[in-house]
Amino acid sequence: PAAVYVEDQSKLTVKDSILWNNSREFATVSGASYKIENSITTEKGSGNKAADPQFVDAAKADYHLKSGSP
């Protein structure tokens, strides 16, 4: 499974987001496309960083960011 599915000729742009620790970030079907920029992710894109976002406690669903998070 992917974190985000893009379908049916759609064109998705994601900016300034965190997509982290998924088995797969995006899936496209039926001619869809996407780009992701200035985000924390393992996906390639302008300004993206493949760095641990440093959540306070992801295991307990506390997704606030620690001081010093990229």
What is the structure about, briefly put?
With 70 residues, the chain is mostly beta strands. Helix content is 0%, strand content 33%.
List the helices and strands and how they pair.
Layout: E1 4-6, E2 11-15, E3 26-28, E4 33-37, E5 55-57, E6 62-65
Parallel strand pairs: 1-3, 2-4
Antiparallel strand pairs: 5-6
List keywords for this structure.
70 residues; mainly beta; two-stranded parallel sheet; two-stranded parallel ribbon; 6 strands; 0% helix
Residue-averaged pLDDT: 96
- Cα distance spanning the termini: 26 Å
Quaternary status = single chain
The profile of the biggest β sheet is: 2 strands, parallel
- Structural class call reads mainly beta
Helix content: under 10%
DSSP, total strands:
6
What is the topology, as strand order, of the major beta sheet? 1-3
Tell me what portion of residues adopts beta-strand conformation.
25-35%
Which ranges are low-confidence, i.e. pLDDT below 50, for 5 or more consecutive residues? Answer: none
The radius of gyration over CA amounts to: 13 Å
Q: What letter string, H or E per element, gives the SSE order?
A: EEEEEE
Q: What is the overall shape?
A: globular
**Number of helices in the DSSP assignment:** 0
